[in-house]
């Protein structure tokens, strides 16, 4: 990929511990509807936290770990974390 990573590194210290769907979409540089669609199809590799108000939310550390795995040299082309 000509030296460019799929996702830019995230400063974990600046993130809240819990991310709502809008923040995840912003980190992934995609739309909220894309995240919703991938969650509905069970294609989003990070499980959301249990809902308390019907808003999707994730542990920031889990999202960052997945994004870091996508940046790994042996990551697959689909962006899924290596097995």
Q: What does the model show?
A:
- This protein is mainly alpha-helical and 83 residues long.
- It has a domain at 14-71: Multidrug-efflux Transporter Regulator, Chain: A, Domain 2.
- The chain is built from three helices and two strands; from the N terminus they run βααβα.
- A two-stranded antiparallel sheet has the order 1-2.
- Helix 1 crosses helix 2 (32-40).
- The protein is globular and about 35 Å long.
- It starts with 17 loop residues before the first strand and ends in a 12-residue tail after the last helix.
- The model is unreliable at 1-7 (pLDDT under 50).
Question: What is the strand and helix layout of this fold?
Answer:
Elements: E1 18-20, H1 21-28, H2 32-40, E2 57-59, H3 60-71
Antiparallel strand pairs: 1-2
Helix pairs in contact: 1-2
Class inferred from helices and paired strands: mainly alpha
Relative helix content: 25-40%
Named at the architecture level, the CATH assignment of the domain at 14-71 is: Orthogonal Bundle
Largest sheet: 2 strands, antiparallel
Please give the radius of gyration in angstroms.
Answer: 13 Å
Number of strands: 2
Number of separate helices: 3
Observed structural traits:
83 residues; mainly alpha; Multidrug-efflux Transporter Regulator, Chain: A, Domain 2; two-stranded antiparallel ribbon; 3 helices; 2 strands; disordered N terminus
